[in-house]
Amino acid sequence: MNIESNESLKPLLEECKKGERSSQKLLYKYCYAYAMSICLRYAENREEAQEVMNDGFLKIFNNLDKFDYQKPFHYWLRRIMINTAIDYYRRNQHQRQTLDLSEARPIADSGDVLADISEQEILRLVQELSPGYRVVFNLYVIEGYKHEEIAQMLGIQVGTSKSNLAKARVHLQQKIQKLYAIKPNE
């Protein structure tokens, strides 16, 4: 997303507030790539990310009157997309099974393998995590939240957040090991 100043976005946002469909469509297209990149980090697949993103845009259009023009619009959009992804996770949490990696052992240092992994590969590997692990991993590693904040957002214990992050890391290490045929403890 090429971030424009709020001043240049203000006329478009004002039209969106009035319910102008053509303006809403224009804002949606303008912000699509940025919003989708956020949602993909939390979703299991592209279809789920699309659903989260569309729900997020509905929240944006319904709450534009609460937007503070003193703050950058893309920060507000990002926050809404993350919160919508968390809401989606909470709604569907009971329908998903999580993989128990409590028996997994740590993997030895794999050298500089991460330098060889593309952004798309990393995104794909993160998307393969179970929903609980993926959400905690994204909130902690990518968004920079503390475990206490994550626990409050997701309605889980702090220890569960820490455990899910540790298990997510082990799972990602295993995926990288498999992807690059690295033997454990070498």
Task: Give a description of the structure.
Helices cover 66% and strands 0% of the residues. It has eight helices and no strands. Helix 1 (6-17) crosses helix 2, helix 2 (21-42) packs across helix 4 and helix 6 (131-142) packs across helix 8 (158-179). The N and C termini lie far apart (42 Å). 24% of the residues are buried.
Strand content: under 5%
Largest sheet: none
Question: Looking at the chains present, what oligomeric state does this protein adopt?
Answer: single chain
The parts where pLDDT drops under 50 for at least 5 residues are: 97-113
How would you spell out the order of helices and strands?
HHHHHHHH
Q: Compute the number of helices.
A: 8
State the total count of DSSP E strands.
0
* Envelope shape: elongated
Spatial separation of the terminal alpha carbons: 42 Å
